[in-house]
Amino acid sequence: MIDANSKTLLEVHDLHATVGGIEILKGVNLTVRTGEIHAIMGLNGSGKSTFSKVLAGHPSYEITRGTVLFDGQDISALAPEERAQAGVFLAFQYPVEIPGVANNQFLRLAYNTVQGKRGKEELDPLEFDDFVREKMKLLKMSPDFLDRSVNEGFSGGEKKRNEILQMALLEPRLALLDETDSGLDIDALRIVANGVNQLANKDNALILVTHYQRLLDYIVPDYVHVMEAGRIIRTSGKELAQELETHGYDWIHASDRVAGAQS
Amino acid sequence: MNTVARDDYLERLIESWKKEISPARSIPYLDQLRANALGRVELLRLPTIRDEEWRFTDISSLRNTPFPRASAVASTDLDDQRVDAFLDETACKLVFIDGQYMPGLSNLATDDDSITVCSLSELTTGARAHIAEQYLGQLASFQENVFVALNTALMHEGVCIVVSADAAVKVPLHILYISSSKDVAAYPRCLLIAEMGARVTLVEEYVALHEGVSLTNAVMEVYVMDSASVNHVRVQHESQQAFHIANSFAQVAKAAHYDSLNLALGARISRFDERITLAGENAECEVDGLALIADRQLADTHTFIDHALPYGKSRQLHKCIVDGNAHGVFSGKIMVRPHAQLTDARQLNRSLLLSDKARMDTKPQLEIFADDVKCAHGATVGQLDKESLFYLQSRGLAEVAARNLLTYAFGGEIIDRVVVPSLKRRLEEYILARTRIG
Ligand SMILES: Nc1ncnc2c1ncn2[C@@H]1O[C@H](COP(=O)(O)OP(=O)(O)O)[C@@H](O)[C@H]1O
Ligand SMILES: [Mg+2]
């Protein structure tokens, strides 16, 4: 929801980033205020996941130019855990499997670490068990997933639900959902979208990364951005997603050419 | 015995041995066995890194530590409480101090008469009279192995455990080997016989009451008779300065099952040689190992699984977690003899290097002489997965916490296979504490 009085949560200015010496992000600009939902769309390889990982602090990506302000603070030098503690959350496009670490152990450790850093109450295993089961209901997840190793042998959809479960537990102020819709059938998509909608409020913000319009039928964005070759080349309202769906990404260039010819 | 050993380290050991009075009560077979072994020691020498099987493990520093064999320990030197600290109340316990079996500190807290425990020299009367002759030293050949020869020559008393046919022993047997002080050498010896259809769990644990240099040279022989099942857990937790050399032999008969789990946690240099022979049709073994080492520790595990007859099955998972300047060695040989058709063997060695200086040498060897078999093996050496670390950190865990959790999980796969719950808990706590570095 767009509100002129809300405060700026994320301010990305002229962001350039490289991985393995190759420049992937080539000047991204983006401002996100509390209460807003943004969608970043774009073809495969356009740099959406890179952008998400850079914001979350992946050590393989290096910021070579530009700034990232979160809540007014430059976070580019912060470790991933410090960003998480401050309220940045990334739901991974490909969540990692961690054999040998029980999901409930992991979730409780993450929850208590973040709670502790935020000066909030930590939960003992029994209290946490009740708490997490309640959150799992939101996503219609079976409690069986607590005893299994983190993401190990989970289906694509189960992994995505486990990501949103972590989001529900960690209560981020800025959540980046990277292709959370991929691998979900329509029922699962509804459940996950419904869960995300319940977590969105006027004090936090969401960035949905996707290359399909489908998710946006369920989580309605305030802004849609199109990323191409490491830049945001177009920003508009939610209708942009529909137009991209109908006409394809080439349409942007075609319409740009038309616009150029007319001017 | 007037020959002079070719090896001056061994010669000094032999001299010190000859000055001692031989054990008061013994049986002729045992005396003869010791004498034969001593004769063999005189012809052998300590291995060096020029010997293929010792390529990665330099034990030349053993020469600087010509410890006397521990003299007889009075059981009053150590009170029960100190010993009990290492044991869970429910376990049947057998205690060795510096290699010497201590009946006074041991306690078979079971009225189960299906278990016989006695020192080898007590095997003189009744139905058990010929056990020593029939079994002792039959698997643990000392012809080519100087450490087995030394153990056989220098052992005080050995202990013999016999589990009667078809008996299912509910409580685990717990053998505790205590190194009581530095500069002492121990030569513990144990013989376990699980008769036909018997089921038993044995925990062998090596601990130290000191932080200094000591030497353990242990030999274990296990007979798993037809359809019997033995679960054997071995925890080596010696002083960080110690030398620990152990040879373990198991013979698994028809349709019998042998589970072996070996944890190498302590010692400056440890070498564990395990030889398992699947000597009957449908014999099975499961061989797991975990070495968790840091600083300047070296842990060397050599296993040899010998498929001698058809329909055998072996499963092996050996893991090493190597930190600091430590050095892990794994050599795993699987032999499938011409006769052993339809063998199903699988071996995996996975190692985790936690520092730049950590080193791992791994050498899997399959020798297959039968044509209709399923054999697979693999070895991986790697660091903690970067993507997993980032994932955990992105959920708020500090890098150190994330590393520790992943390291713990890596070792946890082996700890999970420890069948004695109290021991498993204790090991989990230990590994958590050990991985809580930095
Ligand atoms: N670790 C990496 N090493 C090399 N190239 C990478 C790496 N990660 C991403 N890239 C490249 O960066 C570009 C953008 O990738 P990505 O951000 O995953 O795009 P998207 O999420 O939009 O599909 C691609 O060309 C991809 O090959
Ligand atoms: Mg992507």
Strand order of the largest sheet of chain A: 6-9-10-3-11-12
Query: What is the highest CATH level, the class of the domain at 8-97 and 172-262 in chain A?
Result: Alpha Beta
Largest interface: A-B, 29 and 23 residues
- H/E series of chain B: HHHEEEHHEEEEEEEEEEEEEEEEEHHH
Helix content of chain B: 10-25%
Strand order of the largest sheet of chain B: 2-1-5-8-10-12-14-16-18-20
Number of strands of chain A: 12
What is the 3D shape of chain A?
Answer: globular
Poorly predicted runs of chain B are none
CATH architecture of the domain at 8-97 and 172-262 in chain A: 3-Layer(aba) Sandwich
Oligomer: heterodimer
Total helix count of chain B?
8
Distance between the termini of chain A: 33 Å
* Overall geometric form of chain B: globular
Mean pLDDT of chain A: 93
| N-to-C CA distance of chain B | 56 Å
Helix/strand class of chain A: alpha/beta
Largest sheet of chain A: 6 strands, mixed
Q: Please tell me how large the radius of gyration of chain A is.
A: 19 Å
Taking pLDDT < 50 over at least 5 consecutive residues as the criterion, the unreliable ranges of chain A are none
Describe what you observe in this structure.
The complex is a heterodimer of chains A (263) and B (438). In chain A, the strands form 3 sheets. Chain A has a 6-stranded mixed β-sheet, sandwiched between helices. In chain A, strands 2-1-4-5 form a 4-stranded antiparallel β-sheet. Chain A is of the alpha/beta class and 263 residues long. In chain A, helix 6 runs parallel beside helix 7 (186-199). Chain A is built from 9 helices and 12 strands. Chain B has helices at residues 8-19, 28-41, 80-84, 131-135, 146-154, 386-393, 399-415, 421-435, and strands at 92-97, 100-101, 115-119, 159-163, 173-179, 185-186, 189-194, 199-208, 215-224, 229-237, 243-252, 257-264, 269-278, 284-293, 298-307, 313-322, 327-336, 344-353, 359-368, 374-382. Chain B has a 10-stranded mixed β-sheet, covered by helices on one side. In chain B, helix 6 (386-393) packs across helix 7 (399-415). The model of chain B has no long low-confidence stretch (mean pLDDT 89). Chains A and B meet through helix 2, strand 7 and helix 3 of A and helix 6 and helix 7 of B. The complex binds adenosine-5'-diphosphate (ADP) and magnesium ion. Adenosine-5'-diphosphate binds next to strand 2 and helix 1 of chain A.
